[in-house]
Amino acid sequence: MSDGGSRPVWRHCQHCPKKRAFRTADEFRTHLRERHCSKEGGSFVCRYGEHDVCASLPLEGVSDEDYEAHVAKHHLLRGEWPDAVAEARWTLHRSAQNLPAVLNDPRRSRREADFFTRTWGDHFTEAPPTGGPGARITREHFEPFLTRCARSRRPATSIAAALPSSAEPLCLPAVFLGPELRLEEPATFAQAIPWAAGPSRLLQERLTHYLDLVEVQLARQVSLRSDAFFQAVRSHDVLAERLSGCVAVVAGLRSQLGRTRDQLAGGGLRLLLLWRRQARQRALCAKLQLLATLHEAQPTIQRLLATGDFARALDFIEASREILALELAGVQSLRHLDTQLLDLERHIERNMAADLARGLSAELNRPPDDLAPIGQQEEEALVALVAGMLRLGRPAGMDFASLLRDEACTALQAAIKAALAEGMSQGEAWTALLERALDAAERVLRRTCELAQLQRRALELVAQAGEAAVLEDEAQLERARRGTLAAVGEAAQERCARLVPSDAHRSPLNVGSFPAVCRRADQCVERWTELCEHRSQGSLVLALRTQADRFVGRFHEEHKAKLGLLLDGELWARVDIPAELQNMVDQFLGVESPCRKQPVPSSAPQLQLDGQSYSITGSTLLLLRMVLEYCQCTRDLPWVGLSLAAKLQELLKLFNSRTSQLVLGAGALQRVGLKTITASILALAARCLQLLLAFLPRVKAHFEQHLATRKDTARHFDVIAKEYAEHVTEIFAKLASIVSNVLDGQLAEWEVKAPVPSPAFRGLCTLRSGL
Fold first, then answer.
1. C-alpha angle 719/722/723, rounded to 5°?
2. What is the CA radius of gyration of the chain?
3. I want to staple 507 with a disulfide (CB 3.0 to 4.6 A). Which of 36, 501, 745, 764 is the partner?
4. Is 404 in contact with 532 (CB distance < 8 Å)?
5. Alpha helices in 261-308 (DSSP H)
6. Pairwise CA distance, residues 648 & 343, whole Å
7. Angle at Cα 533 formed by Cα 532 and Cα 535, nearest 5°?
8. What is the mean pLDDT of residues 442-451?
9. How far apart (Å, rounded) are the C-alpha atoms in residues 579 and 585?
10. Beta strand pairing status for 607-609 and 612-614?
C-alpha cells in the first residue's frame, strides 16, 4: 500500500455493478472469495476480471493457500509502488512501527514451502535437522552491536507526529469550507458577504485575499503532484495500448468461437431446435383435436337431451369437463365452458328429477283395478333415469330414494283418501273403512316395492359402464332403498291408524267385526313387513291395541250387566239347548258334532258334554255362550288375552256368587216371586254348576295356549273350579237335608198295619218319583 495520496486498489470493487467501499483489505478479500471465486472440487478459481476471468490465475484452480497468496499479490497490492512525490520517505527508523508488514511480506511466493506436500501428499515433509546444544548467548555478545548503533537509534514516534501536514490550514471562514455552499439562500449570502461589516472596498480586498490564498494552495498542491500526474498520463497511454490489443484479441477469439460453433455445434443445435419445434407443433395439434372434440360434443349433448337420453348426455358432459380440467387448463377462450357445462348438468339433473317424479307418480297412481306389472317401455325409461341420477351422485334429498319416498307418500295419501270417499258414500262403519284403507295402502306398497327394484337394475347398468365410484356406494344406496320402504310402510300404518276412533263410546263394536278387522290388520302388517324388509311396531298396531283394550272393557261391562239382569229374572227352569250353541261347544272341544252327520232339530232338551247330558237354565246358557265368546276373542286378539282372562274369571265368580245368593240364600223368592226353593231348583242349579265345572279345564287349557308368557294367570281358573265344587257340595248337602226331613216326616207317620203298602210308603214312593 502506498503512503502517498493515491488510494489503494482494494477500496472499491472494479467489476461489481453496484459500487461498494471497503474499509479494510480483509473486507475486500472476503468480498472476492464470496462474489468472485468458484470452487470446483477441492480447487479455487479466481473470477475477478473482465467476463469473470482472472488474467493472472490458471483456470484449473489452486489450493486455498495459493488462492490467498494470489489475491494478496495480484489484487490487494497490484502496482502499488512508492510514490515519487510523497512528502515523507520510508526510513530505517519507521520499520519498528510496521513490523508485521516487514515480517509478512505479501509479495513473497509460498509455493516453495508446500512444493513436496502439494505434489506427493501431506506425509512427504522434510524432517528438520536435529541440532545439538547451542552456545549460551548473553547480553555481552550484543554489546559491540548496540554500541555501534546507539548513535543512529532514536525513540519511536507515531506516524501522525512523523508525517508533516500536507498543507497549512487556510484562514478562510467556515462558510466557504462547508460541504454545501448555497449563495441563493439569503442567510448564507449575508454570512459569506457581510455588507454591513464595513465599506465595500474593504470587503472586496478581503475576498481578494481569500482568493489569493486559495490560488496559492492550489498551485502548491499541483506542484507537489505534478510527477504523479505525468506518471498517470503515461500509465494511461500504456493502458490504452494494452486495451486496444486486448480488444483485438477478444474480437479474434469471438470470431473463432463463432466459426467453431457453426462448424461443430451448429447442426446439432439446429436439429435440437427443429425437434423442439416439432414437439410443440404435435402438442398444439393434440390441443386442437381436443378443441374440435369439445366443439363436436356440444351438438351431441343437445341431440341426446332432445331424445331424453340423459345418461349418455351426462357421460359427454363429464368427459368434456375432464378434458377441460386435465388437458385444456389455462386456455382463455374456454374459461367459461366449465361453468356452462356445470349449469347444463344442473339443468339435466332438474329435468331428470322431474321426469322421474312424473314416471313414479304415474306408476303409483294407477287405478285400483290395474294390477298389471310395470310395462317394459316404462321400466326401461325409469331405469335410464335412475342410472342417470346414480351417476350424478347427489346427496340425500335429490336421489332416487328420496323421490320415491315423496311420491309414494303422496300416492298413498291419495289412494286412502279415494277409498275412504267411496266407503263413506255408502255409509260404512269405521271397520269397513279401515279395511278399504288397508287394501289401498297395500296396493301402493306393492307398487313402491316394484319401483324400488329399479335401483338394482340401474346399478347393474352402471356396473357395466364401469362407474367405480357408484359401485363403492352400493351398500349405502341399498340402505337408502330399505329406509325408503320402511318410511313408506310407517306412513301407511300411520294413515290407517288415523281411522281407528279414539273414543270407544262413539265407535260401535261387536264380537265379530272388531276381532276380524284386528286379524286383517295383523295380516297386513306382516305382509308389509315382508315387502318393506323392515319390522316395526307401527302406529296402526298400537292404535288397534288401544282400541282393543277399550273394546274388552266395554265388552265385559255389557256381558256383566246382561248376566246380572238375567240372573235377577231367572225362574230356575230348564230351557232347550239351541243347535248353534251345541255346535259351538263341539267346535271348541274339537269333537265332531252329530248335526254334521244327520239333520237334527233346531234345539235339544239337554246339552251334551263329554258323553253326559246337562239340563241347564237360561242364565247358564247365556254364560256358556259368553265363555265361548271370551275364548274366541282371546284367539282373535292375543295381545288382550290377559285382560280377557281376568274379565272372564270375574264373570265366573259373579255367576257363582249370585247363584249362591239366589238359590242357597233364597234370594230368588224376592226377585221373581217364587214360593219356595224346591229340590228340583237345587238340583238344576247343581247341574248348571257341574256343567261349568266340567267346562273350566278346557277354558284353562285354551288360555294357557294363548298366554304362553303369563301362564300363571290361567291358574286362577283352578281356584274358581274349587269354589264351584264347594258350591255344588253345599247344594247337595242342602238336597240331602231336604230329603232327610221329608223321609223323617213320612216314616214318623208310618204304622205297621194293613193295608200293604201303607199310605206312608206310598208317599215315600211318590216323593222319590218326584225327586
1. 90
2. 66
3. 501
4. no
5. 266-307
6. 73
7. 95
8. 84
9. 10
10. antiparallel
CA contacts within 13 A on the Cβ side of 113: 6
Q: Which bin fits 535, alpha (ψ -120 to 50), beta or left (φ > 0)?
A: beta
Longest Cα–Cα distance of the chain, Å, equals 213
Give the 3-state DSSP-derived string for 5-43, with helices as H, strands as E and coil as C.
CCCCHHHECCCCCCCCECCCHHHHHHHHHHHCEEEECCE
Per-residue pLDDT tens digits for 77-134: 765 544 444 444 555 555 455 555 555 555 555 555 555 565 666 555 556 556 556 6
List the grid coordinates of 432: 269397513
User: Crossing angle, helix 513-532 and helix 539-568, to 10 degrees?
Assistant: 160
pLDDT digits (tens, 9 = 90+) for 408-434: 888 888 888 888 888 888 877 777 888
Is the pTM of the predicted complex or chain greater than 0.70? no
Residue type, 195: W
In sequence order, which residues have a C-beta less than 8 Å from that of residue 171 and are 6 or more positions away?
Answer: 213
Give the start-to-end residue ranges of the domains of the chain.
Answer: 9-116, 336-536, 561-743
CA-wise closest residue to 386 among 318, 445, 462, 450: 462
pLDDT at 248: 94
**Residue 53, all three cell numbers:** 476471468
How far is Cα 121 from Cα 608, in angstroms, rounded to an integer?
136
Tell me whether strands 37-40 and 43-46 are parallel, antiparallel or unpaired: antiparallel
Unique residue bearing C-alpha cell 265368546:
629
Complete DSSP assignment for 591-643: ---GGGTS---SEESSEEETTEEE---HHHHHHHHHHHHHHHHHHH-GGGHHH
Which region among 164-173, 449-458, 515-524, 699-708 has the lowest average model confidence (pLDDT)? 164-173
pLDDT at 301 over 50: yes
Percent pLDDT > 90 in the chain is: 6
Length of the chain: 771
